[in-house]
């Protein structure tokens, strides 16, 4: 029994990659006689988190964060980072890179010939990378951070 | 014009791409059961480690030098390979995947995007370096054979910067004059010595040989090669390869096995793998071959004499093509029992599925029953379940159920891109 017409605004309707295998919701209304659902013609498919977070699957990597150095950028221990290697690295990008074999997530700041890797937690000092002396290899730029919400702590 | 993109020391480079401390160090990658060396970094080549050498023979070198050893992680290499191929399709439309680390490109008609081949080659190299952190070499030529040759030159001469272009007569002439005929694509050792006997040592000499003579000595395939060297394309880009004509699985035991039961278990495992492949490419097979052999190089302990050797195989033609593991297994096991001889230490049992036909082709025999449709359906159900719950969750009862077999590879790197437990961690 439909009492109010609950129209879906056009901007809330998305089209996603047809090669994707998300199940399509079958929205065949059971109303045989009477007013058919007005939404029937507008629902296309379910949204997929992958389309939002990992648009370039071929150039993206998942990396797990450990440590608390990037808490200011909402990167917590255990967060899963989506790292896109095709995105150009600029000053200010949060990147995942190896510095002398150590894999770290830091904010990239170019300072002339050297590179500063900044943490967003004031308890951590920045790392300075000299391209001639240090081995430095970028995996990519962090494009999304996937975290669980923090555990609830009862206020006192 | 054609281009050939080929990754340098692909397996080693992939291991390095997730572990940059290996840069500059010798790296080797071992075959399926850690038996032989199948890939070497340039540093390992310089130490004199030969392709295909047995792993235990490198022991002395490993004690002297700091050599990084990896078991082959085909999950990781395959995934990196598919990323590489999809990056290439961003540059040109027609890409023929030639092997796990090689692809031919059709590069005509992109002049407005990439005015020079050098520029295109450099752009591909830079993109792959940025996205996959592995080095690739690129050769350009008017035919596939010349592109392949150019690629080889790009690898041999680091001063070219990884890109070699043979786009005019002079460059082609110079390249062919210095190129040994035995290194050409499609010239094996046998043809190379035959050609040498007739005074042909370089690719240029072969190109200038008379057609009749080439056709006589090297058949029509050799003639095609000569035309390709002259710049006349005979091998076209094969963008959608046909399904495989035969499927073979024959990994070694990793140790020697004397008894029929264990060999039978191994055979069932191999057959299960082969049937999975068969069903994945939607084929049925009409002929099964089982072979069994001892290690030809094994010495009798104590006296150093060659151990007694045995080799046998048996081919069975099926009454109707099928891809059901259970059905094929009855034929395979019967064949194995008929060729098994008591008293040998066997190194390997293998299975070859041939006479493959598409799955929708079902010819009913006149005097024999057709394949049971229920078996065929069962196969795809089993594959789906195993895909969801892990390999070999549903298996034939005679399949090996020993977690220590097949031997676990000892030097496996994590599957960084395909398993949540294995992804990189960053501080």
TrEMBL record, chain A:
UniProt name for this protein: DNA polymerase V
Pfam families for the chain: Peptidase_S24
TM stretches of this protein: none
Top-level taxon of the source organism: Bacteria
PANTHER family associated with the record: LEXA REPRESSOR, LEXA REPRESSOR-RELATED
InterPro entries registered for this protein in UniProt: LexA-like, LexA/Signal_pep-like_sf, LexA_repressor, Peptidase_S24_S26A/B/C
Residue ranges occupied by any Peptidase S24/S26A/S26B/S26C domain in the UniProt entry: 25-142
From TrEMBL, chain B:
Domain (UmuC) ranges: 2-188
CDD domains the record matches: PolY_Pol_V_umuC
Matches recorded under Pfam families: DUF4113, IMS, IMS_C
TM annotation in the entry: none
Keyword DNA damage: yes
Alphabetic keyword roster: DNA damage, DNA repair, SOS mutagenesis, SOS response
InterPro entries, per database record: DNA/RNA_pol_sf, DNA_pol_Y-fam_lit_finger_sf, DNA_pol_Y-fam_little_finger, DNA_polymerase-Y, DUF4113, Rev_trsase/Diguanyl_cyclase, UmuC
Top-level taxon of origin: Bacteria
Family classification: Belongs to the DNA polymerase type-Y family.
Protein name: DNA polymerase V
